[in-house]
Amino acid sequence: MTASLPQFPWLTLLIFLPLAGALLCLLHSKRPTDCRWLALVTSLAVFVVTVFLFIAHGQGDGRWLLYEDAVWIERYGIRYVLALDGIALLMVMLTAFMQMAAVLLAWRVERHVASFFALLLLLEAGLMGIFLAYDLVLFYLFWEVALIPMFFLISVWGGVNRRQAALKFFLYTLVGSFFMLIAIIALYQIHGAQSGVYTFVIGDLLQTQLTAAQEGWLFAGFMAAFIVKSPLVPFHTWLTDALTESPAAGSLDLTGLLLKTGIYGLIRIAFPLFPNATANFLPVLGILALVGLFHAAWSAYHQDDIKRLLAYSSISHLGLVVLGLAAWQFTAWEGSILLMVTHGITTGALFVLVALIRERTGTHSMQELGGLWGQTPCLAFMLLLFSLASLGLPGLANFAGEILVLLGTFQQHPVWAVIALIGVVFAAAYMLRMIQGVIWGPAQKERTLPDLTTREWLILLPMAILVVWIGIYPEPFLAPLHGTVEILLAGGLP
Amino acid sequence: MSLLDLLAMLPILILVFGGTAILMAGAWFRQPVPLLAAGTVTALLAALAAGTVPPPVNEIAGLFSAGGYARFYTILWSLLAAAGLMVASRYIIEKKIGPGEYVSLVLYAAAGMALLSSATHLLGLFLALETFTLAFYILIASNRRCALAAEAGLKYLLMGAVATGFMAFGIALIYAASGTLALPDAVVRLTTETGQLQAWGLLGWGMVLIAVGFKISLAPFHLWTADVYMGAPAPVGGLLATGSKGAVVAALVGVLAMAGPVWNDLVDLIWLLAALTMLVGAFSALSQKNLKRLLAYSSVTHMGTLLVGLLCQTSEGLAATTFYVVVYVIASFGAFAIIASLADERGEPMEFDQWRGLGYRHPVRCGVLALILLSLAGLPATAGFMAKFAIFDAALKSGYVGLVVIGIFASVISFAFYLRVTMLLFQSEESAPRWHKGTAPEHAVLAVCASAILLLGLFPGILFNLIAQVLP
Questions:
Q1: A204-227 pLDDT tens trace
Q2: Which of A65, B119, B171, B444 could lock A57 by a disulfide, CB 3.0 to 4.6 Å apart?
C-alpha cells in the first residue's frame, strides 16, 4: 500500500510463531515434557516480540504503528492485511502475557499433553489474528478458527458437563458470527457496486455510502456477533457454562482474551464502519450494559461455586467496559480499554487461583472451602490481592480503568454513571463474600495443604506486579491509546 | 465418427478399453493386486490424457463436448476412480470380490460420469447417465454375502428405474415440443415458440428435473439416499456420494450455461427445491446415529446448496458451483475413504458408538476426519468455507437473500451435527477398540484429500483460475 521499504513482518510473526509451535508440539506428541517446554518457549518468544513492539512503537500518534498488506485471494479482492494500532498493541501484549500464564498453569496436564499445548498455541494464533486482521474475511477466518481450539479444550479436558458446554459455546458464537458473515458479504457487494472496487479491507469500506436502512441492517449483523461474544445480557448463558466446564488454562484464555474479541470488534469494526447506526444504538448499548452489570453482579452474589461466581463477575465487568464505550467520550474510552486489559489480568489471575485451590482441595464450592489463610497463606494472600484488585480497590489495576470509565461517563450521562457506581459497589459485595468464604473462617477440614510452588509463583508474581504497576502508574499503558482513541471517536480509523 | 472424434475421446476410450481389458484379464487371472494397480494406472492415464492431449475438435458426434469444461471433469472423475480403486483394494481382497469385474465397473462408471459432465445432447445425457447408473447397480451389491448391501442395491435399482422413466419421458416431451435433442436448441427453441408447445416443453423439463432430483437426492426425492449409502460398501459409497452426484450437477451447469429464459419458469420451483433440500437434509442429519447415514443427509444438504449456485445463472454462480462440486467431492470421498480404511473383519465402523474415542486409537485418520467434517460444515481456512462463501456471494449478488439466509441457517445446523461427530471421536478413550491400521494406498488418498482441503481453503485462487478458464 505504501511505498515504504520492506520491513520485517513482525505482525505475521506474531501469528505464525504460535502456529509453528503448535505444529512442532504435534510432531513431538510422544514426548510430553518436550511439548511443555516447546509451548513455553514459543509463548515466551511471542511475548518478547510484543514487548519489543511496545518499546519500539508504544508512543504512536494514532496512525498505524505497523501495517502489512499482501494480495491473498484475488478473485474476491480478499487481502492479507494486518494492522497494529495502539489498542491492538495492548491486546496483543495481553494475549502474549496471558498465554505464558496459561502454558505454565497447564504444566501438569497429563492427558494428551501434545494436543493440549498444540490447541493452546493454536488459540493464541487465532487470537493474535483477530486482534491484527484488517481485512474482514481474514478477520472472520481468525474469528472462527479461534473457536475450534477452545471447543476442543472444553470438550476433551473439561468438567462433567463439558460436551454440552462446548457445543453451546460453539453454536452460540457461531450463530452470531453467521449474521456477521452475511453482513460482511452484503457490505462488500454494496461497496463494490458503488465504487467498482471489490474489497474487504476495512479502511476502504469506510467510504461506502449506505442508506439508513442498509446501515441499520448491516450494523445489526455485526452486532449479533460481537454482542454474543462480549457477552451482553441476555446472550451470556453460554459463557458461564463454558467457563465453569473449561479446564483451567482454557478458562484463563476464555475470560482473559476471547471475551475481549467481541468488544474489540465493536471498537475496531462495527463503530467505525457504521457511525450513524452506532450513534442511534449507543443509548440501547448503554442500557444493555447497565442491565448486564447489575444482573451479573446479582447472580454472582448468589453463587456457591467460585468458578461460576467469577464467570458472572466477568460479565459484570465487561458490562462496565461496554458502558464506557457507549458513553462515547475520550476518558471513558481510554478507561474501557484499560479496564479490558486489567480485567483480563485480574480475573485471569483469579481463575488461576481457583484452579490452584481446586488442585489442592478438589472443590470449587464455598461451602466446602474456608480457612485457607491458615493453611496456605501465600495463596490466600494472592487471592486477597486479586480480589481486591477486581473489586476496584484504589491503587490496584482495575481502579484506574473503572474511575476513568465512571468519570468519562458522568460527563455524558450522569445518570448512567451513578447507576454504574452502585453496580461497582455490588462487585465489592460479592468479591468480599467470596474472600470471606474461601480465605477466612474456620477450615472445613483439618488438612495440610501445600502452599504455592515455584511454578505457581512464576504465574502469579508477574500478574501481581502488573496489577500494582497499572494501579499506581497506568500512563505507559494509556500512552499508545491516546491518539488511536481520538481518531476512533472522530469516526475514523488510523 | 471420424478419426479426429476418436482422438478427442481419447480419455474416455482409455477408461473403457482399459476397463474391458482388465475385465477380460480378470477372467483368467485372479490376482487382485495387479488388476487393481492396472485399473488405477488406467484411470490416471485417462486423467493425464485429458489434461495433456488437446482435443482436435470441440464436439464429438454432436453428443458430447470435448472442450475445456468437459476435460476438467474428465480429469476429476478419472482421478476419483483411481482414488476409489486405491481405497477399495483391501475391501475386494477381504470380501473375495472378483477384482476384474470390480475394477472394470469402476472404470466404466468413471467413463459414464465423464461423458455425462460433457453432454451437449439429451441423448448423450441419457446414455451417459445410464452407463454409470448401471455400473453402480452392480457395485453397490457387489458384496453378495451382505444382506444390507443387497437391500441397498435393490433400493438404488428401483429408484434408478423410476428416475430413468421420468428422464426418458421428459426427454420425449422436450423432443416433441422442440423437435430437437441437441442441448442449446432443445432449450432455446422452446422459448421462441408460444402456447401449447412451450407448455409441453416445460413439462418435459420438469420431468427431467424430477429425474435429476432422484439422482442427486433433492428433497423430497432423497429418501433412498441414507439406506443406500449405509448398505453400500464404503469405497462404493464414496464414489456414489461424490461422482454420481457431481457429474449430474456438472451436466446441469453445462445445460444452464446454454439455457435461456425457459428456466425463468422453473426458477420458483428450483428455489423451493433448494430451500427444502437444505433444510430437510440438515434436520434429518441431526437425528442420525450412524456416520454413513449422516454423510448421506449431509450430501442432501450440500446438493441443496449447489442448487442455490445453479440458480444464480451468472458466470459467478456457475464458477462457484463448480468449485463447490470439487470441494464437496474431495471432502465427502475422504470421509468414506476413512471408513473404508478402518474397516476390518468386523465390518465398517458406522454406528456412533463405534466411533466413540476412536481419535485416541487412530489419531491421524480421525484428525483428518475431523478436518473433513469441519470442511463439510464450512469452517474458515478449509476449502468448505470458500466454497460456501462463493455460493452465497453469488446468490446475494443475484438477489436471493432469502435462500442465503436459509442456507446459513442450514449451515448452523450442519455445524451442530458435524461437531457432534467430531466430539465423539475424542471422548472416553478407554473403551475404544482398535480397527484396521490401513494400507499405504489408503493413507496416500487421505493425505491427498487433507492437503487439498487445506490448500484450497487457504489458496482457492488456484482452482478458481482454472475454472474461469474452462467454464462454458
A1: 898 888 899 999 999 999 999 999
A2: A65
